[in-house]
């Protein structure tokens, strides 16, 4: 079925003929396309490296907060000394309190594309 559909549309009289470049024009086309693909690859790679740098900086900052004591100094042994005050700033920074204040309720609830359990509430009155 699929082959016959493809064959029909390729041989249809309203289908435009395929492009046929001369040798020089094909070479120019290939060169421009290759240069553009190289540019896109380089731009994408640059963006990925920038995002990786930002991620690593955030990870290092979170680790520094996790190891920091109440006095603002890093724990010498990796965070075990100092009791509950070590990592207090990290725990406060990671709390999710108040992030939905001032946000419309439409964004706070889960967006779903599913029908309701009851299609129509027949008992509803004004």
From TrEMBL:
GO terms for molecular function: structural constituent of ribosome. InterPro entries: Ribosomal_mL40_fung. One of its GO terms (cellular component) is mitochondrion. One of its GO terms (biological process) is mitochondrial translation. PANTHER family: 54S RIBOSOMAL PROTEIN L28, MITOCHONDRIAL, LARGE RIBOSOMAL SUBUNIT PROTEIN ML40. This is Uncharacterized protein.
């Amino acid at each position: 079925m699929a082959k016959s559909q493809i064959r029909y549309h390729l041989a249809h009289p309203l289908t435009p003929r395929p492009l046929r470049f001369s040798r020089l024009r094909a070479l120019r086309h290939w060169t421009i396309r290759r240069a553009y693909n190289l540019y896109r690859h380089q731009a994408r790679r640059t963006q990925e490296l920038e995002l990786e740098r930002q991620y690593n900086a955030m990870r290092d900052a979170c680790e520094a907060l996790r190891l920091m004591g109440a006095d603002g100094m890093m724990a010498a042994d990796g965070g075990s000394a100092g009791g509950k005050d070590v990592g207090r700033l990290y725990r406060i920074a990671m709390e999710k309190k108040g992030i939905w204040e001032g946000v419309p309720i439409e964004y706070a609830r889960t967006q779903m594309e599913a029908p309701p359990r009851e299609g129509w509430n027949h008992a509803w009155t004004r």
